[in-house]
Each structure stands twice: as C-alpha cells, then as structure tokens.
Specification:
The chain has 15 helices and 17 strands. The protein is of the alpha/beta class. The chain folds into two domains: about 260 residues, TIM Barrel; about 90 residues, no CATH class. The strands form five sheets. The protein has a five-stranded parallel sheet with strand order 4-15-14-13-12. A four-stranded parallel sheet has the order 5-6-10-11. The chain has a three-stranded antiparallel sheet with strand order 1-2-3. A hairpin with a 2-residue loop joins β16 and β17. The longest helix has 27 residues. It is globular. The protein binds one RNA strand through α5, β15, α11 and α14.
Amino acid sequence: MKKNFSYEVLHIDKNSGARTGVLHTPHGDIYTPIYMPVGTLATVKSLTSDDLYDVGAQIILANTYHLHIRPGDELVKKAGGVHKFMNFNRPMLTDSGGFQVFSLADIRKITDDGVEFRNHLSGAKMFFTPEKAIDIENNLGADIIMAFDVCSDYGISHKDAEKAMTRTLDWLDRCYKHHKNAKQMLFPIVQGNFYEDLRLKSLEETKKYCKCGIAIGGLSVGEPKDVMLKMLDVMQPHYPEKMPRYMMGVGTPDYIFESVQRGIDMFDCVFQTRVARNGMALTSRGKVVLKQAQYKEDFSPLDPECDCYCCTHHTKAYLHHLVMCNEILGARLLSLHNIRFTLNMMQNIRDAINNDRFLEFKKEFYAKYGIKE
RNA sequence: GCCUCGUUAGCUCAAUGGUGGAGCACUCGGCUGUUAACCGAUAGGUUGUAGGUUCGAGCCCUACACGAGGCG
C-alpha cells in the first residue's frame, strides 16, 4: 500500500487547525487543502480533460452508482478503467453510491445486508451491498475509492442516528474485507449524524480502518451552519494526524474556509458546476447572478482578478447573453471559471497556511467576497 | 362585393352565460459526496371598438375595425 499511497503534512498553521500537505497516488500528487470537481458520469459536465488540466484540477470525482447504471462498470473496465475511458490522467476518486441511496430516499429500503432501491432511470429494483459497491469501484479503477456508508437526515432521533452509524461501521468492515486491489486506496467515512457522542464514537471506530485517509460524511445535508461547524469542532482533536481528512460534499467558499480552519484537507462539491449551468458565478467580489438585467450592457470581465479563459476573453454582457439564450457555451465558460476560481482560492489558502497567515487571509477573503463571520 | 373562421397577458393558446387561466418570455430568488443546461416566486388583462339582450356577457345579437382563407 505504502508504495502507491502516502500523505505528508507539509505545514501546520500556527494560529488555527489549518494545514498543508501532499497526498501521493499512482496518478500523481495532490496538494492539500484541495477542492475536487465532481464528474459523476465520468465527465465534469461540459468540460474536457484538457480544460480540467488548464484550470488546475488535481483530482476529480466520478460516481459508482451512476456509472454502474450507465454505461456499466464492466464496460468501463473493458475500456481500461475510468481514467482511460474518459482520458483523464490525473488522480480520480469514486464515491460509493451511499449518497445516492440517501438522495433517492423515497424509493429505498435499507437492511443490515444492503439497500434495495429503484434505478432512477428504468425503475428496476436494484440491490446494493458493501461488497457490490467495492466490486464496482474496483472495476472503475479510481485511485481513491469510498466505503459504502449510510447517510442520514438532519433531525432524526439519536436511536435512528446510532443505527445508521453502526450500520456504516459494519459495512465499513465488509468493504475492507472485500477490497483487494492495492492500487486503490479505500477511504472510510465517519457518520454519526448531528449527535456529538455518535460522531466521536464513529470517528474512533473508523480510525481503526484508516490506512491513508479518512472522510467525514453526512454533513451539509440541510442543517444550520453552526450545527455543522459544531460537529467539526467536536471531531477536530481526534483525527488521525498523518492522513488527509476529506469532507464530503462541501462546498461553498465560506464552508471551505471554516472547515480548513478546523483541520479538513479535501473537499468535493457539485455547487461550482451546477450553479455555473444555472447562470451563477463565484468571484472575488462575491456571487454574480448573470441572469440579472444589470449585466445586459456590462462589458467588464466577470472577475478582473481571475486568470481563467472566461475572464480573460469575455465580458459579463456576453455571458448574460449566453445565459439568457440558454446557450451551452455559457454553462461551459462559467463551469470553467467557477472551478478555476475555487482552485485559485485553494492555492491562496495553501500559501496563506504555509506563511502562518490563514486567519488573516480568511478575513481578507470574507471582506471582499461579502461573507459575514 | 359576398361567405367562413378568427381577434383574450409580450408571444402561442384555454375558459357550460356565473370569481378570466396555462405554457413560454420577462423580472427576481434558490442550488453543497449531481435523478439538476434545474427548481421556485413575483409581476403582467377596460377579453379589438361601439352598442344591445340578460339579475349577470370573453361567451348570445347588431354594426364597425383588423387578420386569415374561400367564392366571384
């Protein structure tokens, strides 16, 4: 394992829990803290691999459940794995499908053995188990694969939360017993809903399985921000030191800053690409909703401080026009920008941490972006 | 010249003689391990004009205007 994967902590900020590091994988190194663009169906929607290299994506995600349904993980294996299939030659991570079970909540049935749910395309009944998820992830061949977990809603009882957590641990054990491929690192996922004791218990038990990284799941599912931050505060002193901590499904700039401050190293989020397709951009001066009529005759760049293709070649008026006409280029340019903006932000965060000025940088960023602390 | 059909929100169209609606567009909001180029909200009307019948007319009657088609 260690031949293929290892993590080095490079620097710990003197005034916070923020830290920089580097994760070595078979497809290259990943400098943390990092944001990972999401490419569910083996495509970061509207972008080519070269686009992703150009904006500096170090690693991207793909999804077990979605690729299993279409085109099928066996086919991806025949293609030579997900890297070759989509021609992306940097590190990749596959999510296990646990979140899909959660987000397709109205049509699922969870038992100790696994989950029965309906294929959202054909309606056919499917049965997923930890072993099946690992089989699929092995076929897909990403560098980092995720354990099959049970994500639970905000607001459920302690008893139900404990059941989901215990089941996640049981499934984690099964995932590890089933996973044999040393070229793929399996990340376990901490659950425990929003109960401090369950989060801590889940973390302690999950740590026993950590070989090169640990993920925090089940957060940012509709709970208030302070509730989520409280969970991070509770867990912060107990993470394994020399492994990257991956916070799943987060986020927006403010959530990233708050999480980095609390010792998180990796993030993934569909937000950047989804809002891009819906006509919104993240910029150094805050969000820009390009549908708004105020941009009709605004011939200035989207973000004068951004070095991406979109900001160096086009105006807000043109982007407004593309968005209003529902032209696909608008979605593409804004996706390109939002990812570049976030990756630049992560680079600046790493630089700040290395200079022990994470908190100052956070303050500067918040003031300019318009985030209230 | 005659006949037929039509005229309702910016556009395309609904609406037994009984509180005039929808889709799209416009304006604005939302989006956090993608069922999402998606979802939601506000606004928008002297029902072509002028009369008549009726307790009550977008709807029935008359005239006119405008449009489409047909016949001469």
